[in-house]
C-alpha cells in the first residue's frame, strides 16, 4: 500500500512553544516525493516543502524545520516558537501513481489541526 | 500575479441536480488538477488536465467529469448529485505536467448537497 499517516488529529499549544507534527509514509517506490502543505481557514492549500527520496538532508526555513528519515519512513515537521498565525491544518503528502496508472497525484494524509493560543 | 481563482465559492444544490465548478489557473500555468476534500475521506485526487486533455484520473465515478479550455481554464461537472458529494472542491495549477513540484491551490468551491 502507498499511504500517508498523520496520527495526530489535533494539537493545541501555547504561543512560543515548539511543536512537531508527525508524518509516516508507506511506499513501494524507490524514487518518491514527499510534501507538506498548510491549509489556513480560508481553504487554500499552501505549499511548504518538497523532499525527494534521495535527499535525506534536513531542512530549515525560518521557524520551520523538517526531519526526513528513510529508516523509519518518517517526514516530521517542527515549528519552533509557534505563533497564533501558525494555526491551521497541516497535511503531509506522498506523490503516488494513480489507480488508472495514467500519472501521478498527491496522496494526502488526514491532516493535523494545529491550534496556537496566545 | 493573480493566484488560482475558483468560482463559485459556495453553492447549495439538491440531490439529483448537477453542478459546474470553474477554475482559472495562474497565468502561464497549463496543468490543472482537481481534488475533493471531505471530513471522512480527506483530500482525494479527481483528475488532471493539460493542453485541453484529461491526462490523469482518480478513483471517482463517471458522474464526475471535467474539461479544459484553450486558455487553460478548467471546469468540473458533477451530475446526479448525491448527499456524499458535499465537499470542498479544490483546484490546483502548475506550469507543466507532473506533480514533482509545487501545486498552487485555489480557495475552493464548497458544495452542499441537500
Features:
heterodimer; A: 118 residues; mainly beta; six-stranded mixed beta sheet; four-stranded antiparallel beta sheet; 54% strand; globular; B: 114 residues; seven-stranded mixed beta sheet; 0% helix
Overview of the molecule:
- The complex is a heterodimer of chains A (about 120) and B (about 110).
- Chain A has strands spanning about 5, 10-15, 20, 25, 35-40, 45-50, 60, 65-70, 75-80, 90-95, 105-110, 110-115.
- With about 120 residues, chain A is mainly β.
- In chain A, strand 10 (about 90-95) and strand 11 form a beta hairpin.
- With about 110 residues, chain B is mostly beta strands.
- Chain B has no helices and eleven strands.
- In chain B, strands 2, 4, 5, 6, 9, 10 and 11 form a seven-stranded mixed sheet that branches. A four-stranded antiparallel sheet of chain B has the order 1-3-8-7, with no helix packed on it.
- Chain B is globular and about 35 Å long.
- Chain B starts with a strand and ends with a strand.
- The mean pLDDT of chain B is about 95.
- Chains A and B meet through strand 6, strand 10 and strand 11 of A and strand 5, strand 6, strand 9 and strand 10 of B.
Please sum up the structure shown.
The complex is a heterodimer of chains A (118) and B (114). Chain A has 118 residues and is mainly β. Chain A contains no helices and twelve strands.
Amino acid at each position: 500500500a502507498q499511504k500517508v499517516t498523520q496520527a495526530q488529529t489535533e494539537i493545541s499549544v501555547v504561543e512560543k512553544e515548539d511543536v512537531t507534527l508527525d508524518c509516516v509514509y508507506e511506499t513501494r517506490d524507490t524514487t518518491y516525493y514527499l510534501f507538506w502543505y498548510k491549509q489556513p481557514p480560508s481553504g487554500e492549500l499552501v505549499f511548504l516543502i518538497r523532499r525527494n527520496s534521495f535527499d535525506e538532508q534536513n531542512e530549515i526555513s525560518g521557524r520551520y524545520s523538517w526531519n526526513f528519515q528513510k529508516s523509519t519512513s518518517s517526514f516530521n515537521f517542527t515549528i519552533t516558537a509557534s505563533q497564533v498565525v501558525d494555526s491551521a491544518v497541516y497535511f503531509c503528502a506522498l506523490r503516488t501513481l494513480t489507480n488508472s496508472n495514467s500519472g501521478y497525484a498527491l496522496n494526502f494524509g488526514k491532516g493535523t489541526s494545529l491550534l496556537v493560543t496566545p | 500575479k493573480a493566484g488560482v481563482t475558483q468560482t463559485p465559492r459556495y453553492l447549495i444544490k439538491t440531490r439529483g441536480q448537477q453542478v459546474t465548478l470553474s477554475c482559472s489557473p495562474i497565468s502561464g500555468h497549463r496543468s490543472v488538477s482537481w481534488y475533493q476534500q471531505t471530513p471522512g475521506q480527506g483530500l482525494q485526487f479527481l483528475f488532471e488536465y493539460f493542453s485541453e486533455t484529461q491526462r490523469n484520473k482518480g478513483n471517482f465515478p463517471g458522474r464526475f467529469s471535467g474539461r479544459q479550455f484553450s486558455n487553460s481554464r478548467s471546469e468540473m461537472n458533477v451530475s446526479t448529485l448525491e448527499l456524499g458529494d458535499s465537499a470542498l472542491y479544490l483546484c490546483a495549477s502548475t506550469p507543466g505536467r507532473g506533480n514533482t513540484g509545487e501545486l498552487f491551490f485555489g480557495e475552493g468551491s464548497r458544495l452542499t448537497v441537500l
